[in-house]
Amino acid sequence: MTCLVLLDKALRIHDNPLLCQAGKADSSQLLVAVVCLDKAAYFGHQYGVARASLLRLQQQLQLIADSKQALAKLNIGLVTLFGDPLAELTALAQALNVRQILTATPVGYTEQQLVKQLAQRFEVITNDINSLLGSPSLAPELCKLPDSFSQFRKQREPLLLVESALPEFTPLPDQQWLTPAQTAPFCENFSQLAPFSQPESLAGSGEQQALARLDDFIWQKQAIRHYKTSRNGLLGDYYASKFSAALAAGSLSVRFCWQQILQFEQQHLANDSTYWLKFELLWREFFRWQFRKYGKAWFSKSAIKGPPDFSTPALTALQQNTFNHWCAGQTGVPFIDANMRLLNTTGLMSNRGRQNVASYLIHDLKLDWRLGAAYFEQRLLDYDVASNWGNWAYIAGSGNSGERQFNAIKQALNYDANGDFVRTMLPELSAPGRMIHQPGPGVSVPAHWQYWLSKLTASKT
Ligand SMILES: Cc1cc2nc3c(=O)[nH]c(=O)nc-3n(C[C@H](O)[C@H](O)[C@H](O)COP(=O)(O)OP(=O)(O)OC[C@H]3O[C@@H](n4cnc5c(N)ncnc54)[C@H](O)[C@@H]3O)c2cc1C
């Protein structure tokens, strides 16, 4: 019998229960490592917005290539598939006489559907390898899962004995993996899909870079010591952890990350900042379970509140134009545009920036939040279905809170007081001091900005 070990969201050698547990129940099993690049998720469109930028595609291809190399060093081949995952995996399974599939427990609706459909044809074993509460003893019952983060945290934090990370994987003598030469005939050649040079900003999501970043942030620079005060930064290397891309890809284990923070706390210092990094990882966790609870509803305009509305956002020509300007970082509001330009050039944006551009699109431009979420999905190198759509719905007031509105001018004054960030991202602007935050002439200024705009004027003199 053959077992497929599906490594989507599990392309790592460290703390990888899928690799370690494969074949344990039956040592006569032939094991096949496989990853499938979902064509629709990288080449499809939603609401007229492309699902993935070239940069995001390149990043995923690079991650797969790196993992293939790492597995090859262990004499394990990685079958690389491209297309519709159900069709591709079924065809491979038939060719290799597969009865069992081992995979990470899904989070997003599409992945949940895939696992359900596979389970109708094969024996599917899931393991929740990318969750803090992944072990059966910790996993919340979805029907009792609170919809408020603070309740979730209060309920879960005291019980949170995160499972220890597994030692780095080396194949066990009784595991029979298909080798690189044996898997080669089944592999799709990805070199056709995208120009394969690695832009600088891609650094970070591969396993080795992610582990090096974790070591650097926590142990070498010890930037974790001041995380709580620096985390609202907008630009720079150490204001926040930058773990997100690797956590989203599954190339960094969240449990390993958690254990490393605990170790730092035991060996060096436990303070508000070390706690706060765990607190943020709990936000990630919260959205993962929320997505399992509400499934497809997250893509409705009303998300988890009110009757579902899956209609495509309808835009007038003027609104389409407004949306295009928001995407391009050409709204005329410097703080918004600077953040959007950062996203467009690097595929990343700080949490502070994300909250502001999302709020501006939803509450000031009055556009459907799903358009913004779709654009973020296209661009973000740390795109994660639950963290992205969950946070967007949150700010819109359709998710796990009431509406969250941010005042872009007030926020600019708080977090970019001297305008350094805006000046870096928008070198064409030359106004002195805080006046750099003055919106351009065509901008329709919401009433709630007036007071803060007067502060810009005051600071001129
Ligand atoms: C509109 C919007 C969209 C977002 N889309 C995504 C997304 O697609 N992918 C993604 O990983 N994060 C998303 N976030 C959350 C957050 O902005 C990023 O996780 C964070 O900026 C990544 O940088 P970091 O790794 O340096 O984070 P740090 O501040 O160092 O936080 C550590 C880790 O905690 C988790 N985390 C932190 N904040 C949040 C949060 N608000 N929600 C969920 N998890 C969090 C992330 O895994 C992050 O890597 C979004 C936030 C907003 C407001």
The first-to-last residue Cα distance is 79 Å
| Strand and helix order | EHEHEEHEHEHEHEHHHHHHHHHHHHHH
Shape: globular
CATH class of the largest domain: Mainly Alpha
Q: What ligand molecules are bound, each kind once? A: flavin-adenine dinucleotide
Topology-level CATH name of the largest domain: DNA Cyclobutane Dipyrimidine Photolyase, subunit A, domain 3
Number of domains: 3
Helix content: 40-55%
- CATH architecture classification name of the largest domain: Orthogonal Bundle
- pLDDT below 50 for ≥5 consecutive residues: which ranges? none
Query: From the alpha-carbon coordinates, what is the Rg to the nearest angstrom?
Result: 23 Å
Let me know the number of strands.
8
- Secondary structure class reads alpha/beta
General description of the model:
The chain is an alpha/beta fold and 461 residues long. It has three domains: 1-129, HUPs (Rossmann fold); 130-165 and 207-299, Serine Threonine Protein Phosphatase 5, Tetratricopeptide repeat; 317-460, DNA Cyclobutane Dipyrimidine Photolyase, subunit A, domain 3 (Orthogonal Bundle). Helices cover 46% and strands 8% of the residues. The protein has 20 helices and eight strands. The protein has helices at 17-21, 39-43, 54-72, 85-95, 109-121, 149-156, 180-183, 207-220, 227-230, 244-249, 254-267, 272-294, 317-328, 334-346, 351-364, 369-379, 385-396, 408-415, 420-425, 450-460, and strands at 2-6, 30-38, 45-46, 49-50, 78-83, 98-104, 123-127, 176-177. The strands form two sheets. Strands 1, 2, 5, 6, 7 and 8 form a six-stranded parallel β-sheet that branches. Strand 6 (98-104), helix 5 and strand 7 form a beta-alpha-beta unit. Helix 12 (272-294) crosses helix 17, helix 14 (334-346) packs across helix 15 and helix 15 (351-364) crosses helix 17. The radius of gyration is 23 Å and the shape is globular. The termini are far apart. The model has no long low-confidence stretch (mean pLDDT 94). The structure holds flavin-adenine dinucleotide. Flavin-adenine dinucleotide is lined by residues 231, 240-244, 247-248, 277, 280-281, 283-284, 287, 350-351, 354-355, 358, 376, 380, 382-384, 387-388, 391-392. The site of flavin-adenine dinucleotide has 28 residues, from helix 10, helix 12, helix 15 and helix 17.
